[in-house]
Every structure is written in C-alpha cells, then in structure tokens.
Amino acid sequence: MAAFGVGHATLAECSSKWRIEFDESARSGDSIVLYVIPFGGSPVRIETRIPVGTDEEQLSRLVMDALQAKLGAGYSIGVDD
C-alpha cells in the first residue's frame, strides 16, 4: 500500500491502486514531483523532468519510467492506452 501526495499540501488516503491522468501537452518545461509513502515506511520522492511540448502519452510514459526506476519491482506500474 502507498499514498500519493500531489501538490504541496495534498495527501491522499492509503490505497493499493492509484490512477494519475494527464490531459493536453506541457506548456512549459518543468518537473512533476510525486511522493510515494509505503505503509509504515518513509516517503520516496520521484521527480520527472518534463520538456516543453511533451504530449500526454509521452508524459505518462516519462512518469511511469521514473516511478519504476525509483520504486522497483515491488510495485505494478502501467500506462493505459
């Protein structure tokens, strides 16, 4: 189980499944930062750099790759088509 914090002060409830949706292309180059907090564990910070003009499909794959790289095999991470 893990909780995802989105934004500066938002903390989601503990759950075994989460869905993150992206809509449209990135209008500016920046980063998305997610914190995954395993139940009873310490927060894991996952930062994904997003180039200007990245479309929602590319963005989904960038975030998925960053989550997989940081969290490892203990988590099932995928992208809907």
Low-pLDDT runs of 5+ residues are: 1-9
**How do the strands of the widest beta sheet line up side by side?**
1-2-3
**Given the helix and strand composition, which structural class is it?**
alpha+beta
Which quaternary structure do these chains form? single chain
> N- to C-terminal separation?
24 Å
Give an account of the 3D structure.
By secondary structure, the chain is of the alpha+beta class. The chain has one domain (2-15, 28-72). It has 1 helix and 3 strands. The chain has one helix at residues 56-71, and strands at 2-5, 30-38, 44-50. It has a 3-stranded antiparallel sheet, covered by helices on one side. A hairpin with a 5-residue loop joins strand 2 (30-38) and strand 3. It is globular, with a radius of gyration of 13 Å. The chain starts with a strand and ends in a 10-residue tail after the last helix. Residues 1-9 have low confidence and may be disordered.
Short description:
This protein is an alpha+beta fold and 81 residues long.
